[in-house]
Amino acid sequence: MERTSGTDRRTNIVDAAIEIIASHGIKAMTHRAVDALLELPTGSTSYYFRTRHALIDAIAHHIVATSRSDFEASGLTVSAGRDHENLARDIALSLDGTLAHRTQQLIARTALSIELPSDSPLHAALATSVFSRPNAVALFRALGTDDPETAAADFVSLCEGLIFDRVVGARSLDGLRAGTDASIDQLAHALDTYLRGALTRW
């Protein structure tokens, strides 16, 4: 299994744990399984993450950090009066990139979110680990909507649904590959429909 050179041991362990969850399910994710996948001496993962809870916590924070880094790298900006079709296209490109490069993270996030109690701090961290509602509020405020908080909350729900559908929902059966024009068009159409309606409603 290839690992990016130069990454620290903790990151490698977290990435391996995510891969195990995505490929074999949450119950398969044990410290011993991570050691085996990385060909590390038994006990190596436990040295860095003493408990299962600590490892799950690291996974959640890793997904958050990746999302933040991706958003900053996207360079996505919104200004008042921007055309909703072009904005939808830019956001679709970002979502498509997430689907192309972070499928394992998305699957692991879903599996962990289902397992963790809804009142768990880790559940809250995972629930907000991919899409930022504050960033969405800023987007709709810049677009001039009267109720940016509601528009943002609904928009995040839409994005969550689009991603879920493509990863494990009905559209995961359609053979639509991330990184293709068809993939971007599918996402952009749904996003533009919402943006157009939101700008009319709010």
How would you sum up this structure, described in words?
- The radius of gyration is 18 Å and the shape is elongated.
- Mean pLDDT is 89; it is low at 1-6.
- It folds into two domains: 1-50, Arc Repressor Mutant, subunit A (Orthogonal Bundle); 65-201, Tetracycline Repressor, domain 2 (Orthogonal Bundle).
- The longest helix has 23 residues, at 52-74.
- It has helices at 9-24, 31-38, 44-48, 52-74, 84-101, 103-115, 121-127, 133-142, 148-167, 181-201.
- It has ten helices and no strands.
Which SSEs are present, and which pair or pack?
Layout: H1 9-24, H2 31-38, H3 44-48, H4 52-74, H5 84-101, H6 103-115, H7 121-127, H8 133-142, H9 148-167, H10 181-201
Helix pairs in contact: 1-2, 1-4, 1-6, 5-10, 8-9, 9-10
